[in-house]
Recover the amino acids of this structure.
């Protein structure tokens, strides 16, 4: 694809992003009951191919300064689009399965997406525990197999582009050393663990004190 016209490609890519964002919005806002991301990808078949990725990668390697920055963003979009195009039907299946899934608790059937709202507003602790457990069952039995397949495909696609796995590909594309980032965040957690625990202890003490004072006030202010 050495004849790739960058301006035309950028224009088509911008149009694609707008249409995909609209599809996401309509579906996840509940305005479109069935997601069809695949149809959006199908309207832009020339954008997200392995050849497009390789050509943009070649141009990125030879670019300098501002053009290199612009190509970096375009290359990242193209790689992500390539993965999306290759897994579009599975993405539709995941979204639509989530729409149709229900959580069963105490004889009540609750739509999975709405169950988090019900959980957040449920005053009874034991029912919250049952609802939370039921949600986890749906995730484990219904969603995890689909996501497992998605990630297996993603690793295979990355290897098809010449990388060890998905992480190594996006580490290069995004310019992020995920191994180093993981080590830094682990170090930060260890360094701040004591501070977090002390702050949590003070917060719990404050809340318990307020509860105690509230009970005392209620007891002594109640009519005899």
């Amino acid at each position: 694809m050495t004849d790739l016209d960058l301006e035309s490609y950028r224009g088509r890519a911008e149009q694609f992003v707008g249409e995909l964002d609209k599809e996401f919005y309509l579906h996840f806002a509940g305005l479109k009951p069935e997601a069809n991301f695949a149809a959006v990808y199908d309207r832009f078949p020339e954008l997200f191919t392995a050849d497009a990725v390789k050509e943009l990668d070649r141009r990125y390697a030879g670019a300098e300064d501002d053009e290199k920055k612009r190509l970096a963003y375009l290359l990242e979009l193209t790689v992500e689009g390539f993965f999306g195009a290759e897994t579009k039907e599975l993405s539709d299946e995941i979204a639509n399965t989530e729409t149709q899934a229900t959580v069963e608790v105490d004889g009540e059937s609750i739509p999975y997406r709405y169950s988090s709202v019900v959980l957040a507003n449920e005053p009874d602790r034991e029912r919250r525990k049952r609802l939370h457990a039921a949600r986890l069952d749906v995730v484990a039995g219904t969603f995890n197999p689909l996501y497992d397949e998605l990630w297996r495909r993603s690793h295979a696609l990355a290897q098809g582009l010449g990388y060890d796995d998905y992480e190594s590909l996006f580490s290069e594309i995004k310019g992020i050393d995920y191994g180093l980032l993981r080590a830094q965040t682990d170090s930060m957690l260890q360094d701040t663990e004591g501070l977090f625990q002390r702050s949590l202890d003070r917060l719990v003490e404050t809340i318990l004190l307020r509860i105690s004072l509230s009970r005392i006030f209620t007891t002594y202010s109640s009519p005899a």
About this structure: The radius of gyration is 25 Å. The beta strands are 102-105, 108-111. The chain has two domains: 6-177, 178-224. DSSP finds nine helices and two strands in the chain.
